[in-house]
Specification:
By secondary structure, the chain is of the alpha+beta class. It folds into 2 domains: 2-43 and 258-381, no CATH class; 72-236, no CATH class. The chain has 12 helices and 12 strands. The strands form 2 sheets. It has a 6-stranded mixed β-barrel. Helix 1 (2-11) packs across helix 11, helix 2 packs across helix 11 (303-335) and helix 2 (13-44) runs antiparallel to helix 12. It holds the Pfam family FtsX. This is FtsX-like permease family protein. Residues 20-232 form the MacB-like periplasmic core domain. Residues 266-377 form the ABC3 transporter permease C-terminal domain.
Length: 383
């Protein structure tokens, strides 16, 4: 029966490829949209995951990582005095304008690290050492921006990468590039510049409150969750573990912005198109083969046998369509990896797409099954 089912399915090449194409197109769109959504969500909290800190302390009004509300420097001493805190350091996070040689202004994300420990700095240096920030007016620039947005623009339009030892103008303040680092690309894709906390304050406009975040760690034997909760109770500030802060950031963008609606609508359209194409084509295929199913019934094949045949046909086209669509989406992701488009393919994207594909082929098979089960064997004897 399996051989007969495969012969029936592949005998009509046009309808066979039509069903596979419908599932493939739906899989391609679903994987692409979900992978882009996952990539954008990852960019939303890249500023948290890139910092090696167990506890983040901030103003109560902070809603997500880029929504820093400045605090007074005196809050750092209060956090350090809380029982269970092993250490705490300050972190400045803000934006400044970098003026290029041609007069163009480029927005830059500026990080001011603790002058002694450099906690919160980039995890991987490409050139130089993070300790080079101790040099006068030194900064570390992310390597991608040094080759693109902060590069020197030549007269012929080509770009010459920024090099170590060259100067950079930030808010009319000249700094010296001491090294380059790799960073996770953020949602705004702004160039990232690291320097010391006090030097960052000399670059940005003077104000009474400058402290963006306080990074802390629990003492050995104490959990980060318990210490963060204690810091919040004692200081009146908001204190979260890294995972909690990531969840808070994601929750803001999911509930307070339209990003989920936009990507959800695209995913729904992909599901709808895939279901309509695959369902209609599979139904036409079944109608064209009603006489064959009738003959099998007349020879004693029960509904269970016919059911297994149709389900095997649906499973085959579903597997082929899912595999082909996912493969094409992965190729598109590889082609976009050096572009500004975010594309991340975690395992749950493939699982979610697989579940949707199962739903598509199940609906397509169910439409055909109803006709086959109600089929009278005598149809084979009609003229």
């Amino acid at each position: 029966m399996r051989r007969i089912a495969l012969h029936m399915l592949m005998g009509d090449t046009g309808k066979y490829f039509g069903i596979v194409a419908g599932v493939m197109f739906a899989s391609l769109l679903l994987v692409q949209q979900l992978a882009m959504f996952a990539g954008i969500m990852q960019q939303m909290y890249s500023g948290i995951s890139a910092v090696n800190a167990d506890i983040w302390v901030m103003d109560q009004k902070v809603r997500y990582i880029d929504d820093s509300q400045p605090m007074t420097d005196g809050q750092l001493g209060r956090v350090r005095s809380v029982e269970g805190v092993a250490w705490a350091v300050q972190l400045y996070k803000g934006s400044v304008q970098a003026k290029l040689e041609d007069g163009t202004n480029v927005g830059v994300a500026l990080y001011g690290l603790d002058d002694t420990t450099f906690i919160g700095g980039p995890a991987r240096m490409v050139e130089g050492k993070l300790s080079d920030l101790r040099q006068g007016e030194a900064v570390v620039v992310d390597v991608m921006s040094a080759m693109d947005k902060l590069a020197h623009v030549n007269k012929d339009g080509t770009k010459t990468p920024l090099k170590a030892g060259e100067t950079l103008e930030l808010n009319d303040h000249r700094v010296i590039v001491a090294g380059f680092c790799e960073v996770e690309r953020g949602f705004q894709s702004m160039p990232v510049v690291y320097t010391t906390y006090n030097r960052a304050l000399s670059i940005v406009p003077a104000q009474r409150k400058n402290l963006s975040y306080i990074l802390a760690a629990p003492q050995r034997g104490q959990s980060a969750e318990a210490v963060a909760a204690r810091v919040g109770r004692v200081t009146g500030l908001a204190a979260y573990t890294s995972d909690q802060f990531i969840a808070k950031t994601l929750n803001y963008f999911i509930t307070e912005t339209s990003i989920v609606i936009n990507f959800g609508l695209s995913a729904f359209i992909a599901f709808l198109i895939g279901t309509l194409i695959a369902g209609q084509t599979f139904y036409n295929f079944t109608m064209d083969n009603l006489r064959h199913f009738g003959a099998l019934k007349a020879m004693g094949a029960g509904n269970g046998t016919l059911l297994s045949m149709i389900l095997m046909q649906a499973a085959l086209v579903g597997a082929l369509g899912f595999g082909t669509g996912t493969g094409l989406a992965c190729l598109m992701g590889l082609a976009m990896q050096d572009s500004m488009i975010s594309f991340t393919l975690p395992w749950y994207v493939l699982v979610a797409t697989g579940v949707v594909v199962v739903g598509i082929v199940t609906i397509a098979a169910a439409v055909s099954l109803r006709k086959v089960i109600r089929l009278e064997p005598g149809i084979v004897f009609r003229g």
